[in-house]
UniProtKB/TrEMBL annotation, chain B:
SUPFAM superfamilies from the UniProt entry: 4Fe-4S ferredoxins (SSF54862)
Reported function: Ferredoxins are iron-sulfur proteins that transfer electrons in a wide variety of metabolic reactions.
MF annotations from Gene Ontology: electron transfer activity; iron ion binding; iron-sulfur cluster binding
Domain 4Fe-4S ferredoxin-type stretches: 6-34
InterPro entries the UniProt entry points to: 3Fe4S_ferredoxin, 4Fe4S_Fe-S-bd, Fe-S_cluster_ET
Keyword Iron-sulfur carried by entry: yes
Protein name per Swiss-Prot or TrEMBL: Ferredoxin
The organism of origin for this protein: Zhengella mangrovi
Keyword Glycoprotein assigned: no
UniProtKB keywords: Electron transport, Iron, Iron-sulfur, Metal-binding, Transport
Source domain of life: Bacteria
Length: 404, 67
């Protein structure tokens, strides 16, 4: 058993994490990463078990603020803590259970199906703008603005404001998904949150005077009938929804399309057999999902794959590595749009299964059906270069695609 | 008029263990050791089963007619 590379942002690992994941799974399934100061899990069985374990805590915000920031920093970034600590993704039961029961009603497959017309409308509009062009930037010309417009429509943010929350979301994402070379990540995130919250407060006040048919108005109605919910809960939840509602879908679109463009056989198979679109999208999620991993905090002492994990230790659950585990997936390094079943962990699992999964799946299906039908000759103009992030799997912009 | 009674079945290939069904009907669903939910309740009226099925984020709950 050799020494393992501690640098999760090593350019070779960022560009192609698969060989690294293989070594982790086979030789170091649960290892202490000194540089990251936490345990790294890579086998499907262990990642799955951790996602389902009630002894694994989702609140990694409180330990970070209490133990990694100075008293002065804790005061300075109190707002960031307050906002992040109210996000349902960072909560544990019973508060998590309460909020999840509220939000889940808005994102059931049936509720999401009522948004199909909105999603189809945006897809048609964006691709109509591609007609006649030789080259597009997949990210700028579709993958970002499409899901951002959809989630803005759902929440009730005016379309002309969508460009504003791009910058705010970037500030937050750089903090949450562990970007590199960002010394001022906390400052940027807090500045973004201050502006984001002030902006949403404006929308909130408008709806106090006149409720509308949108998610913010619905949340405000729930708030009025639920004494445990506050105005801040509504505003912070909208920040989370606006952020999570487009960032991960943006990456999923880019990652899946570039993978298909690099594998013409699979692209042709999907184009000629659109009945495989659902399984193709699931394979995109498995193969290059938007999140390589997620974090948990050990709620008690425990043993995982022979390692002694202590209460309070943090863990990195590598869904990306689990999704390529040959113990679970046949030919895991092969991208196969017909793979079925495909029990990938890209939307997480258990209590924290992604609330927006039905929406993301519908957005992907509508967008890719149209994309493949409308632009049969598209091809990549440059090599795919991945962003150095520990948790996120995101391609550096621009992603130039020739349409002719 | 006699109302038809239904049972629910959780498809283990689809279930992600979100526990929404258990939160909604703790007497009718429970979590198995493998992280999937299962139906353990008595037969229910169809509207009740449909309501809980619609809450499942991956549509893993199927209705089975008892008759």
């Amino acid at each position: 058993m050799g020494k393992i590379n501690d640098d999760l942002l090593d350019p070779e690992i960022v560009q192609n994490p698969s060989p690294y994941y293989k070594v982790l799974r086979e030789e170091h399934p649960c290892y202490w990463n000194e540089r990251w100061r936490g345990w790294v899990l890579s086998r499907y069985e262990d990642v799955y078990g951790a996602l389902h374990s009630t002894d694994m805590l989702a609140d990694r915000i409180t330990p970070f603020f209490r133990h990694r920031l100075s008293a002065e920093e804790q005061r300075r970034f109190a707002l960031t803590y307050e906002v992040l600590h109210s996000f349902v993704v960072f909560l544990d039961p019973p508060r998590h259970t309460h909020l999840r029961r509220i939000f889940s009603r808005a994102f059931t497959p049936k509720a999401v199906s009522t948004m199909r017309g909105v999603v189809e409308g945006y897809v048609q509009e964006f691709f109509a703008n591609w007609d006649g062009r030789d080259v597009v930037d997949l990210n700028k010309d579709f993958a970002y603005p499409f899901p951002a417009n959809v989630i803005a429509s759902i929440i009730g943010a005016p379309r002309e404001d969508v460009h504003r929350f791009h910058g705010w979301a970037d500030g937050l994402t750089n903090l949450l998904l562990a970007g590199v070379g960002e010394d001022q990540r906390m400052d940027r995130a807090q500045d973004a949150l201050v502006e984001f919250k002030a902006y949403l407060k404006g929308l909130y006040d408008e709806r106090l005077k006149q409720p509308r048919d949108d998610m913010m108005s619905w949340l405000m109605e729930v708030e009025q009938n639920d004494p445990t919910l506050t105005e801040d809960d509504v505003l912070h939840s909208c920040i989370l929804l606006l952020n999570a509602g487009h960032e991960t879908t943006q990456d999923l679109i880019c990652n899946t399309l570039t993978t298909l463009l690099e594998l013409p056989d699979q692209m042709d198979l999907l184009r000629e057999n659109p009945q495989h679109m659902k399984t193709g999208i699931e394979e995109g999620l498995r193969f290059n999902g938007p999140l390589k991993g997620t974090m948990r905090i050990a709620g008690k002492d425990m043993e995982i794959a022979g390692s002694r994990v202590r209460e309070g230790d943090r863990l990195l659950l590598l869904m990306g590595a689990a999704n390529r585990d040959p113990a679970k997936f046949e030919n895991p390094e092969q991208f196969d749009v017909t793979r079925n079943p495909n029990p990938h962990l890209s939307f997480s699992h258990g209590l924290h299964f992604c609330l927006g999964a039905p929406l993301a799946r519908m957005e992907m299906e509508i967008a890719f059906n149209e994309l493949l039908r409308r632009f049969p000759k598209m091809h990549l103009l440059s090599e795919v270069k991945w962003d150095p992030r520990i948790l996120g799997r995101s391609i550096e912009a621009p992603i130039n695609i020739a349409l002719q | 008029m006699e109302t038809k009674r239904f049972r629910a079945r959780v498809n283990p290939d689809l279930c992600v263990g979100s526990t929404m069904c258990i939160l909604e009907m703790p007497d009718a669903f429970r979590m198995r050791a493998d992280g999937h939910a299962e139906f353990v309740g008595d037969a229910l009226d169809p509207d009740t089963v449909r309501d809980v099925a619609e809450l499942c984020p991956v549509s893993a709950i199927e209705l089975i007619n008892e008759d």
